[in-house]
Write a structure and sequence with these properties.
Elements: H1 2-11, H2 18-40, H3 44-58, H4 63-75, H5 79-91, H6 100-181, H7 184-193, H8 200-210, E1 215-219, E2 222-226, E3 232-238, E4 240-241, E5 248-253, E6 256-261, E7 266-272, E8 274-275, E9 283-286, E10 292-295, H9 302-305, E11 310-311, E12 319-322, E13 328-331, E14 337-343, E15 345-346, E16 353-360, E17 363-370, E18 383-384, E19 391-396, E20 399-404, E21 417-418, E22 427-431, E23 434-438, E24 444-448, E25 451-454
Antiparallel strand pairs: 1-2, 2-3, 4-5, 5-6, 6-7, 8-9, 9-10, 11-12, 12-13, 13-14, 15-16, 16-17, 18-19, 19-20, 21-22, 22-23, 23-24, 24-25
Helix pairs in contact: 1-2, 2-3, 2-4, 3-4, 4-5, 4-6, 5-6, 6-7, 7-8
Length: about 450
């Protein structure tokens, strides 16, 4: 039967020399029988390879080769190729071909499959179009909401700047009062009251000038202190020493720490394994058990001997303390808990704001709080830096942005890096590999020939 079928194949394929025809027909006949065997074993890819080679040998095709192609392509799920093979098959008027009825079924089935596929593709395309339109609409709404929020925030910052002028006047009057009183304590009280004030650094400098403390020096690998003329006034005998702060310096010997006054007298014995400088009249100290306490300048422990798992020194009148559950909260200078212990990590308060963290799935997420413990933002950030003149630097989704003291965005998180703000009120930021300068309203600038020029990305 196969030989009979092949004779049908070869009948219309005579061309060229008789010798070439004989060789090609012999090779094509062998391949055809092999392809028929592969079809019976469901090796459809092999069938197609052999049919392609037969077509090359004969220089044409015929109903039987179209049948092999259509059958194999259909079984492989290539319905378009199967339908094309069927069209070629029926165009040759193959009513006497033994596969005629089966080819009609293959043609109908492949056409049905193609129609279903095209309908699904059309439906999927429409669904993608609808989804894209919905995404664009949602993105536009989100951008509009963000733009409105940023506009409102900018207006609120402008209003706050006006209110800040009244605070500045109050600060100026307080500073004049400290100058009139002209005592070290008056200056220190002013600094404590306005820790982030515009005149604070001036007050610190003036206080140090009027009442200069001895300066740390190193002699023969030991620390001591000299006066402003360079004279050694406190013997160099300590393994460690800090500069004086609030009239006291932290000194260490043999890995034990205590405090001396400006006369060099030991006012707090060197009994502690760790100690901080004095701030707001208190210093953090740790004994050998690594428990932390706060001591005053007489060495008395704050709050009736209260101890903590860990503690940070006072900043802006508040200090972070960690309880036995390894959670941080804040106390005031009376030792009262004013912000509950509920954070895995905290920063010092700067400008009335602190960064706090909670762990989620093993990683820390940061937010900002005020001195009442109220959240200014959600726990949305991978990093949250200290505030500078009303601006905080944040990191979200691997990018940096700016946020104001009300918790509203000044910029989107679109920068690869943002530095601290310099004395000129500008921060260096990087976007798309380019460095720009950002002001505290998030506007980008470039310095050209010594002048600032506003730019747009």
């Amino acid at each position: 039967m196969k030989k009979l079928i092949f004779s049908i194949i070869a009948a219309g394929a005579i061309s060229g020399s008789m010798l070439a025809q004989s060789n090609n027909e012999s090779r094509a006949q062998s391949l055809y029988f092999s392809a028929a065997d592969e079809l019976e074993m469901n090796n459809y890819k092999n069938v197609l390879l052999k049919v392609t080679e037969i077509n090359k040998l004969l220089g044409t095709t015929n109903p039987r080769l179209c049948y092999l192609t259509a059958k194999s392509q259909y079984e492989l799920g290539n319905y378009e190729a199967a339908q094309n093979a069927c069209k070629t098959y029926f165009a040759s008027n193959p009513k006497k071909d033994p596969g005629y009825d089966e080819m009609k079924k293959i043609s109908e089935a492949s056409l049905s499959q193609l129609t279903a596929i095209m309908q699904k593709q059309a439906a999927d395309a429409e669904a993608r179009k609808d989804a894209e339109m919905e995404r664009i609409k949602r993105e536009q709404e989100e951008n509009a909401a963000l733009a409105l929020r940023m506009k409102i925030a900018a207006e609120r910052r402008a209003q706050d700047a006006e209110e800040q002028k009244l605070i500045d006047v109050k600060e100026q009057n307080a500073y004049k009062s400290a100058q009139t009183t002209n005592t070290k304590d008056a200056y220190l009280n002013f600094i404590h009251e306005y820790p982030s004030g515009k005149l604070t650094s001036t007050a610190v400098s003036e206080m140090q000038k009027k009442w200069p403390a001895p300066t740390r020096t190193l002699k023969n690998n030991r620390y001591g202190y000299i006066d402003k003329k360079g004279k050694l006034v406190i013997k160099a005998k300590y393994d460690y020493a800090s500069e004086f702060n609030e009239g006291f310096a932290r000194v260490g010997k043999d890995n034990k720490y205590g405090f001396i006054n400006e006369a060099g007298d030991v006012v707090v014995p060197l009994n502690y394994v760790a100690a901080s400088n004095f701030n707001y009249g208190y210093a953090v100290v740790k004994l050998a058990n690594n428990q932390a306490s706060f001591i005053d300048k007489d060495g008395n422990i704050l709050n009736g001997g209260a101890v903590y798992n860990d503690a940070k020194s006072f900043s802006e009148g508040l200090a972070a303390v960690r309880n036995e559950f390894y959670l941080y909260g804040f106390i005031n200078t009376n030792g009262d808990v004013v912000i509950n212990n509920e954070f895995d990590d905290v920063s010092w308060f700067k400008e009335g704001i602190a960064a706090v963290a909670k762990k989620e799935n093993g990683s820390s997420k940061y937010a900002y709080i005020n001195k009442e413990g109220k959240l200014l933002t959600g726990f949305d950030f991978e990093e949250a830096k200290d505030f500078q003149n009303g601006v905080g630097r944040i990191k979200k989704d691997g990018r940096y942005g700016l946020i104001d003291k009300f918790g509203s965005p000044i910029t989107c998180c679109e920068y690869e890096y943002i530095s601290e703000f310099g004395a000129d009120g500008l921060a260096i930021a990087k976007k798309n590999g380019f460095d720009v300068l950002l002001d505290k309203e998030g506007r980008p600038w470039a310095r050209v020939n010594g002048k600032l020029v506003k730019i747009n990305f």
